[in-house]
Amino acid sequence: MALDEPVLAELIRVLKARKAADPRTSYVASLYVRGVDAILKKIGEEATELVIAAKNGDARQLLHETADLWFHTLVLLTHQELELEQVLAELKARFGRSGLEEKAARQT
Length: 108
Description:
By secondary structure, the protein is mostly helical. The protein has a domain at 9-83: Helix Hairpins (Orthogonal Bundle). Helix content is 76%, strand content 0%. It has helices at residues 5-17, 27-34, 36-56, 59-79, 84-93, 99-107. Helix 3 packs antiparallel against helix 4 (59-79). The longest helix is centred in the middle third of the chain and has 21 residues, at 36-56. It is globular and about 45 Å long. It starts with a helix and ends with a helix.
């Protein structure tokens, strides 16, 4: 299966639209209204659930939790008015460079 970028583009469009939605009827809008702490709490929960699924060797649950973590991370980026393209550019900039070099460059 090829990477389906239109899915990510559509998801970002929906997340941006939810900024104007009623928080009583939209889960994402309710996160935006509750602020960054609520979004970060969800990211922490989803990251923990992903770790547990991986540790348990449950591939189906691992996929589910990965999707949840990515989703909530995209909610955070949208809330902070950052673009997915910025993350992709950051990842692209790391190609051809070892992880150890990249980490060392961030610490100086």
